[in-house]
Amino acid sequence: MSFLELHAVRKSYGPMLALAGVDLHVPAGSRTAIVGPSGSGKTTLLRIIAGFEAPDVGRVTLGGQVLANGPDSIPAHRRGIGFVPQEGALFPHLSVADNVGFGLARNDPKRSQRIHELMQMVALDPAMLTRRPHELSGGQQQRVALARALAQSPRLMLLDEPFSALDTGLRASTRKAVAQLLGAAGITTILVTHDQAEALSFADQVAVMRAGQLAQVGPPHALYLRPSDPATAQFLGETIVLPAQLAQGWATCALGVVAADDAQRRGAAQIMLRPEQLQLTQVPAEPLDLDAEASYGVVEDIDFGGALCGLTVRLLGEAQAGTAPLLVRTPAIHIPPLGATVQITVMGQAHVFVESVTV
Fold first, then answer.
1. Cα(224)–Cα(243) distance, rounded to whole angstroms?
2. If one looks up domain 238-352 in CATH, what number appears?
3. Burial of 298 (0-12, 13-18, 19+ CB in 10 A)
4. Which residues are paired to 343 by β-bridges?
């Protein structure tokens, strides 16, 4: 059952259309990530949910309560929604204790106890309560901001690029800790981020925005492996998109005949593979039977990336002459040398895009 529902939400700023009729359903207790390029409408959508903006038309409902129906909107402070902005936005002149307890009544006898509980909830030492924000690390500041948002026991938590100011290692560990905390508390959460990998790892549901609309919404695994169109596929990660001919669940393409995830379609189509689906095996350069079902190529470039490396492979054979070099992701321990001839094996199924194309 949906806890948060948006129906036909539109928003314009003068002549600029920011949201062009957005429908979104968020289940109770789930984590949803909204991703998209700059200017796609992500932040506008989050601000409308929070109550900082009102839609021109459309309805926002939370737990059965109508928060906005067009311009008629409940103020942000009456929505019971927590909000963690980019970089935390802590009050620099206040101690950690006063930041965490900012929304709690000062005459509440349980205020101090609640602040200590919140510090424990976000895995921070209560000894930090007397410090100021500048005396904390970036990850600690984000946890304080989260504790401040949790102080009001929100029905919904909104996170606006909360990890973007952190370095890579700290970003991953903080993101994981926050996801575990919110999951344990059963708080429905929406994360807005530019980082596709962050969205895929954090969320139960990912919503991809493009030009003020939701291009696709679904579980991370489904969106990554079965995107609705090439633009969504490329936004969520590196892709290999090839023209193909479909028949009985198989696709004939520049890589030979590969299994496809659509057994009903026939004829021309576009298929997608992720670079990690290609497995390379070094073989002698001669002799090669380029008319056989096997697919071969030559390693033209190696981008060493530690655990996972990128290889550029040029396909061999007359039928592959017009195909652009392929990007392959492979573990460092299995890298063939530059200039090596390799046999290419496709693992898993190729994804068939919904619309037919001319090839």
1. 19
2. 2.40.50.140
3. middle
4. 281, 296
